[in-house]
Amino acid sequence: MPAFDPVRDAVLNSPQTANKPLTPQTPSRPLSTRRPTDLAALLNADADPPHRPSTITHILRTDDDDRLAAAPSIRKPLKYNPRNRVSPADSILKPMSQAEMNMFKSYEGKGTARLGKRKRSPQVEPDPEQPPAKKIAGDVAVVVDHYNARPEVGLAQRETSPILGLKKFNNWVKSVLISRFAHPALKESKFVIRGQRGTSRGKILDMGCGKGGDLNKWAKARPAELMAVDIAAVSVDQARSRWQQLRGPSFQATFAALDCYTEPLSKAFAPAKLATPFDVVSMQFCMHYAFESIQKARCMLENVSRWLRPGGVFIGTIPNADQLLQNLEGVPPDAPDLTFGNDVYKIRFEDRVHKPLFGHKYWFYLQDAVENVPEYIVKWDNFVQMAADYGLHPVYKEEFHDVFSEHREHPEFGPLMVHMNVVDADGESAMDEDQWEAANIYIAFAFEKR
User: Fold this and answer.
1) Residues near 359 by Cβ (< 8 Å), separated by ≥ 6?
2) What range(s) does the MRNA cap 0 methyltransferase domain occupy (predicted)?
3) Which of 302, 304, 203 is nearest to 254 (CA)?
4) Residue range 139-145+158-449, CATH number
5) Less Cβ crowding at N or C end of the chain, within 10 Å?
6) How far apart are CA 143 and CA 208, in angstroms?
């Protein structure tokens, strides 16, 4: 018995068309030899002539054999023509050299080294004792992304900065603060470690440590321990690496990524680490970010005061609110925006009239340092009143220019300016007028816990 042919069966059993019985014609070639692709092409082709029947009867007519043979296949061959090619067209079949293979195997996770990671890794169950990581959004994300993206450069490259004079001057002001207020507090500390390098005394908390720019200053104080936190995790890693590269670091150090304006220090450090109180808390060029809201400002002050011993000091540097608001008032009414500054720094406010105690935002640019990040006004009287609620009382507040005037003739800090290249041996400053103006938008402060 011949094999069952569904097409032949459909034709033989189809109804009559136009009152004429369907009589299968003797095809020029057996139905079983006709290609399904040709059959489909004829079924889907446009009718030509228009009166051609729409049933499949005409397919079997001998006068349609020529049309069947000439019918195009619906499977048209596609030419290989990829777009957005990554590799050259003639490089696909070229084998990689041994040197290329070695290069890609050690190419920081790229190339052939990535092929071994195609399988989905097993999901790790979250640690029930650790809270889920918080997603950073809004203005905080802008600040974090900015400081995480800034690369850590070596000493040689730092010496080529176009605002090198301003940076050295700011470092000198911080050195004055540390020497005047932190050193005495550390010397009075009861936390002592005796080792091969001698006696180390005192404990420091560096809130907003950044990339560790003050590590050398703290090393000169010979503390027993330093604990440092910053919201930018990449900066924290760079600070830790910087500490490890110090020439024989004489103090212990612990680093952690933490938002000190929304979370307690106890989330980053074990209770044993916080059992011994701090003698000094330092916040350099970062405290103003806490004044986005009253909640953040109070959380910051709680972290400062809770683990600071009585008699301990809180030192820092913040923008001079009086100076900034005075410059805002000086912007002409017909100015296109509320911007002032010079080639070194620029500040842009969003509102001239509304001046809240918290969340009074402006955008700050500092050449070779800060690229338009949101910052917040810290009104001094409001800050002092809040700090008093946490047992913190001011003992020092000066504009940077006044810090310079007060200490330029000091037997210790005057020569230190020459040593730090703030001025040369003849007293000539390394700063130009624009840098000197930018320096005066900051104040230095010190509080004591009572």
Assistant:
1) 291, 292, 293, 376
2) 161-450
3) 203
4) 3.40.50.150
5) N
6) 12
Task: Please state, in angstroms and rounded to a whole number, the distance separating the CA atoms of residues 99 and 97.
Answer: 5
CB 317 within 8 A of CB 444: yes
| Whole-number Å distance between alpha carbons of 162 and 368 | 7
Closest CA to 47 of 58, 35, 36, 63: 58
Q: What is the value of pTM for the model shown?
A: 0.69
Give me the amino acid identity at 150.
R
Token couple for 97: 């050299």
Q: What is the per-residue pLDDT across 153-170, written as a single tens digit (0 to 9) for each?
A: 566 666 788 999 999 999
Q: What are the sequence ranges of the domains in the chain? A: 6-70, 139-145+158-449
Q: Who's near 163: CB < 8 A, 6+ residues apart?
A: 344, 366, 367, 368, 369, 435, 438
What pLDDT is attached to residue 122? 42
CA atoms within 13 A on the CB side of 187: 9
HEC profile of 58-80: HHHCHHHHHHHHHCCCCCCCCCC
Per residue in 98-131, is it b (16+ CB within 10 Å) or e — as a string?
Answer: eeeeeeeeeeeeeeeeeeeeeeeeeeeeeeeeee
Strands (E), 152-304: 192-195, 198-201, 203-207, 225-230, 252-257, 278-284
Strand-pairing partners, residue 134, are none
Q: Identity (one letter) of the amino acid at 54? A: S
Confirm if 249 and 219 have CB atoms less than 8 A apart. Answer: yes
Burial class (CB in 10 A: 0-12, 13-18, 19+), 10: exposed
CA R_g for the chain:
38
* Alpha carbon distance, N-terminus to C-terminus of the chain: 110
Please choose, from the candidates 433, 436, 435, 441, the residue with its C-alpha nearest in 3D space to the C-alpha of residue 328: 441
Pairing state of beta strands 338-341 and 345-349? antiparallel
Q: Which residue has the tokens 């228009």?
A: 50
C-alpha 197/C-alpha 232 separation (Å) is 33
**Tokens encoding 92:** 């696909």
- Residue 194 — very low, low, confident or very high, per pLDDT cuts 50/70/90? confident
How far is the C-alpha of 58 from the C-alpha of 187, rounded, in Å?
A: 108
Give the model's confidence band at 199: pLDDT under 50 very low, under 70 low, under 90 confident, else very high.
Answer: confident
pLDDT over 80 (residue 348):
yes
Nearest to 213 by CA among 180, 175, 247, 250: 175
Residue with tokens 């590590």: 215
State yes or no: pLDDT of 266 exceeds 90.
Answer: yes
